[in-house]
Amino acid sequence: MTRLLTASLLVATAAIVAADEGMWTFDHFPGGIVQEKYGVRITDPWLDRLRQSVVRLETGCTGSFVSAEGLVLTNHHCVNTCLADNSTAERDLVADGFMAANRDGEMRCQGSQASVLVDTEDVTPRVTAAIARVAPAEAATMRNQTLTRLESACEEAATKRGAPLSCEGVTLYQGGEYWLYKYKRYGDVRLAFAPEQAIAAFGGDPDNFQFPRWCLDMALLRVYENGKPAATPTHLNVNWNGAAEGDPVFVAGHPGTTQRLMTVAQLKTQRDLVLPFWLIRYAELRGRLIQYSKSSDEAERTAMDYLGSIENTIKVRRVQQLSLLDDRMTAQREAEEQKLRAAVAADPSLASARDAWDTIAKAEQRNRDIHIPWVWLEGAAGFNSDLFFYARQLVRAADERARPNAERLREYTEGALPRLRAALEAATPVYPELERVKLSFSLERMREYLGPDHPIVRAVLGTKSPDERAEELIGGSDLADPAVRMRLFDGGRAAVAASSDPVIALARQVDAESRRLRTIVENEVEGPERVAQQAIAQARFKVYGTDLYPDATFTLRLSYGAVQAWVESGTRVEPVTRLDRLYERTTGAPPFALPMRWLDARERLDLSTRANFVTTNDIVGGNSGSPMVNAAGDIVGLVFDGNIHSISGSYWFDTEKNRTVAVHPQFMRVALQQVYRVEPLARELRIPAR
Amino acid sequence: MTRLLTASLLVATAAIVAADEGMWTFDHFPGGIVQEKYGVRITDPWLDRLRQSVVRLETGCTGSFVSAEGLVLTNHHCVNTCLADNSTAERDLVADGFMAANRDGEMRCQGSQASVLVDTEDVTPRVTAAIARVAPAEAATMRNQTLTRLESACEEAATKRGAPLSCEGVTLYQGGEYWLYKYKRYGDVRLAFAPEQAIAAFGGDPDNFQFPRWCLDMALLRVYENGKPAATPTHLNVNWNGAAEGDPVFVAGHPGTTQRLMTVAQLKTQRDLVLPFWLIRYAELRGRLIQYSKSSDEAERTAMDYLGSIENTIKVRRVQQLSLLDDRMTAQREAEEQKLRAAVAADPSLASARDAWDTIAKAEQRNRDIHIPWVWLEGAAGFNSDLFFYARQLVRAADERARPNAERLREYTEGALPRLRAALEAATPVYPELERVKLSFSLERMREYLGPDHPIVRAVLGTKSPDERAEELIGGSDLADPAVRMRLFDGGRAAVAASSDPVIALARQVDAESRRLRTIVENEVEGPERVAQQAIAQARFKVYGTDLYPDATFTLRLSYGAVQAWVESGTRVEPVTRLDRLYERTTGAPPFALPMRWLDARERLDLSTRANFVTTNDIVGGNSGSPMVNAAGDIVGLVFDGNIHSISGSYWFDTEKNRTVAVHPQFMRVALQQVYRVEPLARELRIPAR
Fold this sequence. Notes:
Two copies of one chain form a homodimer. Chain A is of the alpha+beta class.
């Protein structure tokens, strides 16, 4: 499982609860159910400590403080980009792993940011009142402007108090609630420890989302303030014996996106248009990247991180597609929809929700009409290149910063700019040859989908082939240099207008049409849907009560469950793996080849050591790196994946088969103590001597 | 559009007629409708002459005799493999085209065969009686054995008469009818003329299945007998002025596969399982091949033909998937099904059909369970390699030929062996580097889908990576040599058993499990479905009468229609293109670069010459190269494609938008006479002097 799964439509919803289902907000955790089912009493101090110990990694993962000096436990796959960005042809940190000799040796992850949620504030009345004042077509814009104003005021107040915060507007329950989430943000994140990819992702893509597994998918980061390790007095302890079958466990983290209560019309857009499009696109890109990787060791090294994320996405979307093609699921969702619609029809106080489903269906028709051009231009699928990504941000930032804050596109508000600046400033490597592969591919496919006679295609390609044009763009651009980017960023509109960089020129060339498509989607799809979804959400509260959890939104959530086997095609899948089978499964050829250190260590390890295990918790991409804690609040597992059935968790929770996959602390202990022998970290983590 | 579209499930069905719909058998052509609608009286002599002039190219295309000396007009894309097989690094016939200086210079297309339908015989009573004697699980086997016996008797009788024929069992109307089709077969097919690919497929994959178009997708073959041009006194004339808007036109050819009256359960297997699988698979393969093609000119040249077929298939399956995801279509098909079921329920004489739909739905469930392993092993998706293809045929031919003819797998009966022998004997080039790319890809994906712990995956890969194993297999095999293949073929079981060729060993290694899966599909899916489909077909005849056309089965059909525009998003698409826009559209970069000959010729050509045009005829892949004739029976167009809406013709006929795309004779005339100046062929084709 990769970090946060991006989805083309982010819709927060609510669901009715069964079994260990739900990614609950901390203010609304179903303690009663947990006490009844598992005999564990969840207290406010327990929740507070956990909340203050959980870290959101802005690249799309979770982590947790595990020492008083800013040490963060997360997944190897959450630091993979950091390892790749710091590697060179001579020193491949992804393959070799990284162990800082001491704190001075800890390695900066450029562009990484870590956030801790310190406070939340319900702003539902203010946002809904603002939306109610405008027509549906303007609802999306009004919501955005209102949230931007609230965020700015929140940040200004915090700065005045001398404790700066990053404030983010959060939409829960499809607009049933609006909140401000207030984060303390760390902009200096460094890597202390990461094992070799071969053990962290043992089994590679074939084993991804599978179980049984034997992955040491762990890494240790440290957050710094003012050049020193941050003080984190509130943090979690690791219980090095870890969890055993039947133990109740809790996962705190930042699940990215679920779509459990999209209407059927919205789900069908995903089924018919969005998923098939991305699957075909990513499958071809995978093929190109794999074949490109075979051209040289350096090609393989530089493409690996991106290829891994593509492969992960393909696996996810493939199972999502299967889920949505299951007509039994569609029928169930249609029945739920009919039931709620009947209740709405029978209740005069819910009159505003009556047309909501039809409104959404109509908006989805518009969405379907426009999705393909939208995705190539505004979705930038036609310009798959890091340099284009920089160029678009520079072009738009220049235009947007010339406007009043509340009128800007959401990603260029004052609150959002620090993150943008950090991304532009970071000296992350750009690999020109890889850029050409990606860009040529996307230009060629854009021409296929929009047609060679589409005005944008003609304007972008002229009489050149995709290869020629990609060569010209990537070869002629200086945007790989952070200093060049920052000059353009700081120089604003004048600097961007004066730039002769061909990629900047490209971004300028397509911007008007891209923005036009974005506006259509905002005004004719998102706006009407937002109003309709809010009406449905309120109807759902009225009909079913408020014991509901919202869809995942990459904000802090808590799920409960237990270590538990499941039955696959009539066979019980044991819930815990041990080191013995890791060695039995080693072939010597990637992705089943063990690093030398692990081959050497075999004789001195206890092969009954627990490796990975599964639990019934409800999680999704973005939960990677989440601490899994026991009733005492101590870490007894490190979440890194779900089983194959967890993928359909995007749409529903399969109680029987959906499982979370975690690294067992015993595995981490033998790794740190007996294989890598990183004594100072072992001491800081309070691992008992052997 | 490529030649015949292969589909994993071949099911013949019948449909109710509207508009210009239908791919009719010659014995059942709706002359009355045509006379009424177009005022054209179709006579038996007209039909006979056409039937005798139409040629089936066994590689999946159609052609027609256009002179008394065996000259065959077909598409360039139907001879693309012949051009590629005869090319070398020094002489690229695909790029340069081919023009025989004289008859001696005509170039053999290795392995190509051409067939003319000389007679047909209805054998329905014998086949249905045989099937009725066995249980449903044995129905598929019994049908196969019965058809094999009938074919053998037919061929023996023809040989005794001194006029050998190739007899093929044909299933029409989902088993409503069984026929023997008797062909005169030509095993010596040579190429006389083909233009450069750049003009034959101008616009390449982006323009494939699009219109307007400007493709000179023509080629001229000649069939030989005893080393001399075959005498073909019955042939077609070309009307060099060609068709004009509104003209009634008729297309005779061999449409490959349609699935217009599959049950909803069968369609959903296509929608949910078959199409998503192939789309993802081919999209990745496309990416690998494109990237591989960039590695050298020779890689590009040797991969181009295969890549083109993959790209064509992707486009077809993508639109097929969109068609099946259109719930309106599903609803319409469900309604039709319900209507027929209601009629069956009300008619005691149709009692045998009552459970037919449920039987099929149950069989489809079994099909779904087993499809993935089936497709990797028996479908050979895991062994994507020409050498494996040879190896499997050699291994199986050896085993099957040791059995009585009627008990063999259908592709190894005495009737089928000549075609197999021709394929094994043909000195078609094998490109080892391309083989490794394809085989490594398929081994890697088989491991992903079946899992690294699947017994076959472990047996096939051992501890090696897919790249290592592909290298070992392709590098170690001698099967690229036709002499080696023929020694194994002629040597039978002993020779195959004694072979140490690693690809032969691989084919032996997976054969038991592959056959096991095949048997399950035959006995538990195809058998019960065949019986049920036959019952449905008979019910359909009873309820709707017999004015129905069968689904396409790569057998001779005739469709009617007219040259006609259509309306796309509110805009009329003109039905005929001219040369002027071909030149306007040229960019200089492939696939929009014109060959030098055409650039040079520009000044001397009449740019109002008609290039391509569209008609309302109902066709499908396999019709490529079909003659389009007028009321007089003269050729007024050369079918080479359909528009994008024609792809959903697999499932239904869209009267408003489905269009056939053809090359206009005026285009062929200027090409032969003014651009290529092939005087002897122009004379043989009776092109009037300018």
